[in-house]
Amino acid sequence: MAPKYRKKIELMVRKPDKSDEAEEALVECPFCHMPGPETELDCVSCQNIIPFDIATGKRMSLADWADCPSCHFPCSGQQFLKIIVAEKRCPMCGDEIKMDQMRRAADPQSLLRR
Predict the structure, then answer these.
(1) What are the chain's domains?
(2) What is the bridge-based pairing of β-strands 65-67 and 74-76?
(3) Residue range 7-36, pLDDT digits in tens
(4) Distances (CA, A) of 7 to 1, 13, 15, 16, 61
(5) Nearest residue to 75 (alpha-carbon basis) of 58, 95, 89, 87
(6) What is the reported pTM?
């Protein structure tokens, strides 16, 4: 390799191209409504620990809050339904779940206070 190109190639190899990386979606904290990365379970604003979605592993959103009828862990209603249709079992407790057992939370704020 020619010495005049060596430095350029070394710099290019050491710095990864960040243009290909997708920016992480922001989801509001269910406690203080401050947006944060969907994979962060700690809110930087109110310092609360945000419940994680057993269907996706990401932070819960008040807009699509449900819970497993067996273990009562929080989950995204839409994503949990996809899992129930495909596997017919809760990913957390492994119990068999029927479609008619699935309920969305009417008041997720009250669930957070418990």
Answers:
(1) 25-109 (3.30.40)
(2) antiparallel
(3) 777 776 666 666 656 788 999 999 999 999
(4) 10, 10, 13, 16, 48
(5) 58
(6) 0.71
